[in-house]
Write a structure and sequence with these properties.
three-stranded antiparallel sheet
Length: about 350
Amino acid sequence: MKKLLTLIFIGGSLTATAQVDFNNVLAAGLEDAEKFTTDYLSPLSESVVYNMGTGWYNTADAKPLGGFEISIIGNISGFKNKQDKKAFVLDPNDYQNIDFVENPGVAREVSTALGDINGIEVFVESQAGGVTVRETFELPSGLSGEGVDFVPSGYVQASVGLIKGTELKARFLPKMNFEDASVGLIGFGIQHDFAKLLPADKVLPVAISAVIGYTNVSGDYDFTNAKLIEGKNQRIEASINTWVFSGVVSTKLPVINFYGGLGYVTGKSTTDVLGEYRVTKGPFRSETYTDPFSITKKVNGVTGTIGTKLKLGFFRLNAEYNLGEFNTATVGVNFGFR
């Protein structure tokens, strides 16, 4: 389970490798392999971008000079009811060599990396000595097929107040290694409280801020030892960058407060399939690929946040719900002084 969560956290690129006989995918040819893998991974990469766009604030009331807060933050982005993200339509007419065993030539839905569609068989044909040779294999299911309907993340975040209502933020997850996979996270943000510029700031019941945050998640998975296909130095390297721009409003009460925000998230995931791969079946029986392909997914959309924060001296606890293309629940345990 630890490894599974690590792979999900990187954005699904590694999960695909664990579930697919990569030799089968590449046996269909480089163009078909890249097209299928792009469609398969896209929804999961998108979910990670939205997941990483949360947790940047728990109030609009920026800290004063020298005020600080250290937070342990956890996020869960659910997709249980998002059927449009759990499947995509594979049309054999858009592929050079892949077709369905049942009803060939007819487009049908297949699983994405988030999905749960099982038992879909496809075939690849090649010519050997004037004889047509057919190889069949089963397309992969996704996380829902393994009973997982969420994308998790967690990290440490720190905030410190500067002058004139400005607050700097940073988030960090040290490089974590599980067997042949690793993942790490780093991010930076800034918040500015416009109400701090007003003479009546001390008596205003609310604070109004703008927040900008950037997060980079990077990971790799070395699957040479998994022997999915002959070759060497076989690995996947994934990088996901997320920017979020938000306007935030919150109350300014002594113990319990409420906050809400409207934001815009934009991001890009890049997945590089690296190493040497010697395909042993299909239309390219003796083909050797080096660093076969790279997949890029761009994401953007509007998000909304509603949350509450409880302050008990040095200890604070906040919980929020973020609405977007992928809804995300966030919980933060905070320690600070202001």
